[in-house]
Fold this protein.
Amino acid sequence: MRKYIVPGLLSLFALLPLQARQGMPRLQKQGTATQLIVNNEPFLVLGGELGNSSASSVEDIRRIFPKLQRMGLNTVLVPAYWDLLEPEEGTYDFTLIDEAVHQARQNRLKVIFLWFGAWKNSMSCYAPLWFKENYRKYPRAHTQTGKPLEIASSFSENVYQADSRAFARLMKRLAAIDKEEATVIMVQIENETGMLEDARDYSPDANERFHAPVPQALTDYLLANKQTLHPQMLEKWGKQGYPLKGNWQEVFGADIYTDELFMAWSYAQYVERMAQTARAIHNIPLYVNAAMNSRGRMPGQYPSAGPLAHLIDVWHCAAPHIDLLAPDLYDEGFTAWVAQYKLHNNPLFIPEIRLADNNGVRAFYVFGEHDAIGFCPFSIEDAPDHPQSPLIQSYARLNELIPLLARYQGKGLANGLLFDEKNRERILWQDDLKITCRHYFTLPWDPRAANGTPWPEGGGILLKLNRNEYLVAGSGIVIEFEHRNEKNAVPPQPLGEDGFTANGENKDRRKAEMWSGLRAGIGSVDEVAINGDASFRYIRRLNGDQDHQGRHVRIPSGQFSILHVKLYEYK
Ligand code: DGJ
């Protein structure tokens, strides 16, 4: 039979960017969210990053990848080591790269390669020996006192040429082996770039540029984006009176944070050239990761000038071909850190977080609260692989939820929940509902609340599907629904696990109660699984003791589930 092609559709197809037609991994906006599209479907990275030395032999790759599949990961972040990829200058060896892609396919994993090139945690330890030894050709950054560091200078064209030549060969290899399958879904350029010991490089080239005028591209950018600049950038530039001309100290003031801005411009420009090279060869999403400016440290005590939130305007202006700045999270204050990296101009992707029991609930939190692109505990090969481990339970439920979450991302219908012993409660509002969410141990009859048991973090996702219809997923949470107009002048009496008044008290208190308006009731709570088309598959009804006889919805600590909740109104 003859096939007809509708001319309108054909021309529309031709207008799509090449990567969209080919199903290349790409980023796409949906409302306020940025989605990673893989094989033409929205994809959440349920990932893990390998330890630094764990992809340096074929045997290790073969041993580790099957374990990651058993654990339910869908993506592994794999270092691509410059020293092993180009052991002799101009001689390239792709054995490890090919094996990682091959093993990923065998084990149904996607890969994100991390280019450990000129910089890894600021240092140049992954540069090949031929590069390290030739310090005259490949100069180092220097401290203010003239100390040479094992940090290649970002101001050296020779450094850039050597690094980018090898990186380009990596990208060509990916283009050759992966255009069809799209196993490799993103690439990270360098790792935690930044200057240590001082806030900036003091090598002769660097000093010369520091005293030159600030590039007009940057001041033009600041002016054009003044309304949306990062508050720290706006304040710093504002203190000088928003000048548009002058050297770095004249435009931004003479302090260590200006040194950092200057250095960020240099690193970002360097990375931008790498990104342009990569995109011309194999156009997939690119990102950079940052070590945090935490614990009261100053630039140079932490890696100065890395892709940090307060430097986002410099990085965006100098490196427009980088898709996102990603935080590596090893410090206290998780919710505050992630909030810093989910910005109107930056989607949240967590390439590294310390491996811990709380990873499972934290993954739920970032997907629910921040429409995150991905979550990846570090040194993932060391994680336990027994099915009851929190991360494995969490990833299994999240994996089911991907099609559903993808549909609702960016529309303001989802919230992430995260509780511990200090942060026990959060109140949310939807339509006419007051929704009180708490840690599971706040149930007054749970003995673990008070017997010295450490409170495991509890967390999850609350997703509004429709008016009076919700999805609750996660672990260690309790949720109560109340109508906005439901009024009771008297605080409710504490109830026991059976729902009866816990202790006898003066019955006259009831006389003071005043009720008006509708009340919200629980119609049904079903534990469900999610099918690939985002429809629900009934597992069991949770009623009676399991929903406190219709008073709340809960998921015990240590157990991860997905609940479909229907509410109703009565008076
Ligand atoms: C952050 C780095 O990016 C990782 O490669 C690793 O060094 C961890 N820190 C800590 O081990």
Notes: The chain has two domains: 9-387, 415-502+513-570. DSSP finds 16 helices and 23 strands in the chain. The radius of gyration is 27 Å.
